[in-house]
């Protein structure tokens, strides 16, 4: 794998045969999550396809010329021609493999995959998810000398790692950058001895057998499992949203706000995330229009006061998005005035969406007892409706979802499990 710049593009990519190019950025958790997958696949496919990386911030003109609007973005080339399937954002290993396989003869693909040998590893406890709840559980378990593995499809930290500032975490007088707080949590748990298998694809989860298959070839077994899979951003379902995700619509201010210097953006939402992230985006953007379906924000009063005092930010209350389109270099967001039913067009350079979350339980939701909102029910020891299966953090049914409550859940589950195993 090779790092290149714009001056190398013609020689390394246009004249490079079969090539996959990774546009990455700094302070970009999805980029960090992609890096080990990209490197690992380079070791497997590298004899047939060239793997190169380019630092997006220092090669912005070329990135824009190639249609790159979010980090990370993978572009695929064959004999100088850019292939149509661009991958961006939280890129899955399986999606990369699918594209790489399509660039090679079937016989060669079969030959490559025949060299990948299945493996099995065993632990006392398997933690699914590396947010604050999972990391805390891992810390307490390793301190109890319990053999523990932590599995995540991204890098450790969860949503905290993409939050620009955490202002109320106990023990810190000054607000802490989210990435730094999550980094410190992760390093503490790793140094304690918890095994990390992160930035992987989770292929299969069998709660009854207490087995998890990652990256299609490694089976991880355990005596007990802690589910700490957290939540994902809700989608609006408006026309154009899925098509423009990563191409003008973003769900991560920390990742993409820096690319909107002196530009205009639309922020959708009115809770804590929307209000706090809008304030962060205003450090870069020249103008922000917030769109919220209710007649008032639901964010905490301190965050609201800060936002209302920001001259860069204006708000459209009682409005909802109806569609998203790209016209040239501009994003056009059609919103409906819920009072008058009038449709308005907001022209901007980009759109950020913060409208709440949903639990990440798709691979096992039929196996556990859930509440009416789809969150996992757990008892006072964080034990679910299945024996030996625990759940902590934002994924469980509870009244408040905060970093501190996730940490508390992880502590409780780990202590309960340690007492049983010891």
Can you describe what's shown?
The chain has about 425 residues and is α/β, with parallel strands linked by helices. The chain folds into 3 domains: about 110 residues, Glutaredoxin, CATH 3.40.30.10; about 180 residues, FAD/NAD(P)-binding domain (3-Layer(bba) Sandwich), CATH 3.50.50.60; about 110 residues, FAD/NAD(P)-binding domain, CATH 3.50.50.60. Strands 7, 8, 9, 10, 11, 12 and 23 form a 7-stranded mixed β-sheet that branches. A hairpin with a 4-residue loop joins β10 and β11. α6 packs parallel to α7, α6 packs parallel to α12 and α10 runs parallel beside α11. About 40% of the residues are buried.
Summarize this structure as a short list of keywords or feature phrases.
12 helices; 28% strand; FAD/NAD(P)-binding domain; 28% helix; 422 residues; Glutaredoxin; alpha/beta; single chain; seven-stranded mixed sheet; 3 domains; six-stranded mixed sheet
